[in-house]
Amino acid sequence: MTASLLMASVGLWFVIGSYISYSSRQRGKIDLADYFLGSRRINGFVSAMTYSATTYSAFMMVGLVGLTYRYGVAALGFELTYLMGTVILLVLFAPRYWIAGRKYDLISPSELLSFRYENKSVGALNSLLCIVMLIPYASVQLIGAGYLVETLSDGSLSYTTGTVIAAIVTFVFCWWAGLRSVARTDALQAVIMFVASLMLVGYLALKLGGGGFHRVLVAERSDLLRLNWSPSFFVGLTLPWAFFAITNPQVVQRLFIPKDCVSIRRMIVGFSYFGFFYTVICCILGLMAALMVPGLDLPDNAMPMLLKEVPPAISVVVFVSILAAAVSTMNSIVLTLSNMFGRDLLKAYNPGLSEERELAISKIIIVCLIAACLLFSQLKLDLIVVLSSLASGGLLVQLPSIIGAFFWKKSSAKGAVASILVGGITVGFLTVANLKPLGQWPAIWGLLTSSVAFVLISKKTQPPKGAESFLRELKEDLTAKFGF
Amino acid sequence: MVEKERYLIVLALGLALCNLIVPYCFLRESGSFLFWILTTLFMIVAGTAYTRNWGRKKEKTS
Fold this sequence. Notes:
With 484 residues, chain A is mainly alpha-helical. Chain A has helices spanning 3-23, 32-37, 44-55, 59-71, 74-103, 109-117, 120-152, 159-175, 179-207, 212-220, 231-242, 244-247, 249-252, 261-292, 302-307, 312-349, 355-379, 382-396, 399-407, 413-432, 442-460, 467-482.
């Protein structure tokens, strides 16, 4: 693919997305809920698309394709089990987050924890954990964009050019109207992601002889249809991701944004079907790549190499779709982290801070976060990859305090703080030391220790005074609005 | 948590266990691809059916 074609396609995508982002602006005074939650008035379709685009990063078309290329169907099992976890968690938690957000005027996911546990340290600690875990994860999106641009242009465009392009697009797609800009550009990007994957799989199926694909696969690579992961590897990889829907703040914040109950349902159902088809398509692409470009040392090169086998008209759309997936994940992370920084760290400890000032500082944080991610991506440190892989396991340690907040009236602030601290230290230590006690992954031990700490300390300490009324009011609203 | 939610959780836990046990015990050589697709579709359809009345009650009364 020529550099001029790559740049022209990126330019077209950038112009359309920038127009959508700019036209999403609101006139007059903007408050925090307007900027970070789209005034809580996002319709079902846009909610579903922004949820999908935020959840599915460039990992799908690069990492998952590579994983299937290397290991076969086990990768599908991992990704579909994750999707099943997300569906059930959305059905259980989305109404609760949505009601609590509106009833108590909560904006960030950590703010909900501070409110429920009546202790600002819980939200602050939770926000710090998310910032530490998610900045490397966001940087990896830029790293992926940089390598993709460099590989597909055969070196005509540098890695740095790719990362700078992705960083600029991320900034422009979220700056003007915050969540409203992000949600609407995400809707565009989710459509691009889906259409591009369909085009590619359709073209390759025709090239491989339609139904003959399965026959060829059985004949030539039947090893990819076997399960070749150990059960502990499967569980270790799947478990942290199965709870992604309630442990990753950038997707949790989306539970505050639908305009009504019907929109929440449309968001869940729309995401479920999008996720199902997109996952299956990506895994089939991985299997197709194994047949068409066999023998690659680095599985992550499967997609770039596959794109060299298809006409430029298709490869350029897929290229833009991968960039779109990276940007849509990154701008959501940056927006949510800037909100958490302003709300749960600055505002929580400076109650006198005005809303206008908090918003202004949060917008400066957006710029700082993008700059930090760009800087990390230029350093190409091994540490970033380690921290990025730590993210899913590290964020999992929030799980006990999140479930406790909604379902256990005896859960206490001290229990929540201890749980996040003990779990975070466990996962961090085991990951950095590269230890897997009893063959189990750090995330498993992190979840275990955080759960034990949460239950034991909550039982020994006093729950917040308002815990019972919080749960009672939530139940009343669930019955009234969702017919529970 | 209401009773309906408990049934849903039991169903989800059952499916999650099946997602691990069935392929690793019975479908190691082939068949796991289709099995995972069917269990996921089942979960999605169950979620769709479970949420079908959300917001309807309010629309009727308003």
